[in-house]
């Protein structure tokens, strides 16, 4: 077997064997296959696709390219959740303490943000003192003691995915269903998940721009789950406008804490309750989805979910005084209101553009080496379908970069469409697939 034959086979739309896929994945991970050969292979997959079996073989080869986290000492069904990416997506920060407060063990490794999508780890690091890197035994011990731990990927999990994902980013090959599906599922399998709930985002701020692409991605991941013996449920959610109101790391922590204290924007509430009800069900802690949602809301009302979040922060070294008094969280130097230039109904708040603007304000990374400004971002004052009067505040910009203010203001105004006609609130939960 050699890499040229494998590239040629995919170039000619032929089906690869498990051995050929493993040969490619191992060879590339161990630097025996060059970047240009891997780029040719990835482009051939991008153009010609993969069968279900090929996609599963690629997933498993990438999952086994590094360490596999063993969570068997927890003696519980480990359910993980993952989002295919979005803007203002603080769901993990809210959802995981809630389900943990209902007895679902949460042992989660999350990622950092790149480009316009944020990452849970960057958000957690905006809490002073919060340690995102724990030794593995400490991580597992925390889950045993308080039922939850949220850390960055410290183990060498799915290194093949890291290499292939970075390569895809540089050769315009990110938006491929077999490549996205295998990338996500390989990481979930390597991080010890037995069951998986996926938030498949659809719309302007997502990789999948329409529902039929999202269905295909969801189906691919569900099929991989079946073949890899990991039950997988997908919830398709709307990502045309940002989730909730706050975009940017510490701003999203503030919105998450307020949610846990009962201030629940409707779109976030829908996503949290839907994904959470499935996590509870898959973990074997509640068969009835509606009942699970009620229990989640009950633990917000009685403060148990908020207490669980504080316990998590404290256990990982974070200063809970910042959570108990959100005014203590440092704010950016410049907080500028943006006023609406006309009256009418909001028809569109472009999630992709808002993500890019927040990134330029300092909230995101353009390259992996960039340093994030945790205070930077945008706080929207309105959501799609809301009415706004001319001269009212549409959003606030938070930044430490004075030079970005003017352009960001104009960009935000250009990417929020206001019309005279009323419109319906868009649906947040589009479909559920399993
Ligand atoms: N998220 C991932 O982890 N991988 C992809 O390929 C796309 C989104």
Taking all Cα atoms into account, the compactness measure Rg is: 22 Å
What class would the helix/strand composition place it in?
alpha/beta
| Strand element count | 13
Compute the average pLDDT: 94
Q: Helicity level, as a percent range? A: 40-55%
Strands in their spatial order, largest beta sheet: 1-4-5-13
Which CATH class of the largest domain is shown? Alpha Beta
CATH topology of the largest domain: Pyrimidine Nucleoside Phosphorylase, Chain A, domain 2
| Number of individual domains | 3
Q: Do you know the CATH architecture of the largest domain?
A: 3-Layer(aba) Sandwich
CATH superfamily of the largest domain: Nucleoside phosphorylase/phosphoribosyltransferase catalytic domain
Biggest sheet descriptor: 4 strands, mixed
Q: What percent strand?
A: 15-25%
Description:
By secondary structure, the chain is an alpha/beta fold. The protein has three domains: 3-49, Transferase, Pyrimidine Nucleoside Phosphorylase, Chain C (Transferase, Pyrimidine Nucleoside Phosphorylase, Chain A, domain 3); 72-324, 3-Layer(aba) Sandwich (Pyrimidine Nucleoside Phosphorylase, Chain A, domain 2), CATH 3.40.1030; 332-419, Aldehyde Oxidoreductase, domain 3 (Alpha-Beta Complex), CATH 3.90.1170. Helix content is 46%, strand content 15%. It is built from 17 helices and 13 strands. It has helices at 3-11, 18-29, 35-48, 52-63, 91-101, 120-124, 136-146, 159-170, 177-190, 211-227, 249-260, 266-282, 289-301, 304-315, 320-324, 351-363, 405-414, and strands at residues 79-83, 106-110, 148-152, 195-202, 231-238, 246-247, 334-339, 344-349, 377-380, 387-388, 393-399, 416-419, 429-433. The strands form four sheets. Strands 1-4-5-13 form a four-stranded mixed β-sheet, with helices on both faces. The chain has a four-stranded antiparallel β-sheet with strand order 6-9-11-7, with helices on both faces. Strands 10-8-12 form a three-stranded antiparallel β-sheet. α2 runs parallel beside α4, α4 packs across α10 and α5 packs parallel to α11. The longest helix is centred in the middle third of the chain and has 17 residues, at 211-227. The mean pLDDT is 94. Uracil (URA) is lined by residues 84-85, 165, 179-180, 183-184, 207. Uracil binds next to α9.
């Amino acid at each position: 077997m050699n890499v040229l034959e494998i590239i040629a086979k995919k170039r000619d739309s032929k089906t690869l064997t498990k051995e050929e896929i493993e040969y490619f994945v191992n060879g590339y991970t161990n630097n025996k296959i060059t970047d240009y050969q891997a780029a040719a292979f990835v482009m051939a997959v991008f153009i010609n696709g993969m069968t279900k079996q090929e996609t599963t073989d690629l997933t498993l080869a990438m999952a086994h390219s590094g360490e596999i986290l063993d969570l068997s000492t927890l003696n519980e069904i480990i359910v993980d959740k993952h989002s295919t990416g979005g803007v203002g997506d603080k769901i993990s920060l809210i959802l995981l303490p809630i389900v943990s407060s209902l007895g679902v063990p949460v042992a989660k490794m999350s990622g950092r943000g790149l480009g316009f999508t944020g990452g849970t780890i960057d958000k957690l690091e905006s809490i002073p003192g919060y340690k995102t890197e724990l030794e593995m035994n400490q991580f597992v011990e925390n889950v045993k003691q308080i039922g939850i731990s949220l850390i960055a990927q410290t183990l060498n999990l799915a290194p093949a995915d890291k290499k292939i994902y970075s390569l895809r980013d540089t050769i315009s090959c990110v938006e491929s269903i077999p490549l996205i599906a295998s990338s996500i599922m390989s990481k979930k399998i390597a991080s010890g998940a037995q069951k998986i709930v996926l938030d498949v985002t659809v719309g302007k701020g997502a990789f999948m721009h329409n529902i039929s692409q999202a269905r295909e991605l969801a189906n691919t991941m569900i099929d991989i789950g079946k073949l890899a013996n990991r039950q997988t449920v997908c919830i398709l959610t709307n990502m045309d406008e940002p989730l909730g109101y706050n975009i940017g790391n510490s701003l999203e922590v503030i919105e998450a804490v307020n949610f846990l204290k009962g201030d629940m924007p409707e779109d976030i509430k829908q996503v949290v309750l839907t994904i959470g009800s499935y996590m509870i069900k898959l973990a074997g802690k509640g068969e009835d989805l509606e009942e699970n949602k009620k229990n989640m809301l009950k633990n917000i009302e009685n403060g148990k979910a908020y207490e669980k979040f504080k316990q998590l922060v404290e256990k990982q070294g974070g200063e809970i005084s910042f959570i108990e008094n959100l005014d203590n969280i440092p704010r950016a130097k410049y907080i500028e209101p943006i006023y609406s230039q006309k009256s009418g109904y909001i028809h569109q708040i472009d999630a992709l553009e808002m993500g890019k603007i927040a990134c330029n304000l300092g909230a995101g990374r353009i390259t992996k080496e960039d340093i994030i400004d945790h205070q930077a971002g945008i706080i929207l004052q309105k959501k799609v379908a809301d009415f706004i009067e001319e001269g009212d505040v549409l959003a606030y910009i938070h930044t430490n970069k004075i030079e970005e203010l003017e352009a960001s203001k104009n960009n935000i105004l250009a990417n929020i469409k206001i019309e005279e006609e009323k419109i319906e609130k868009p649906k947040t939960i589009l479909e559920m697939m399993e």
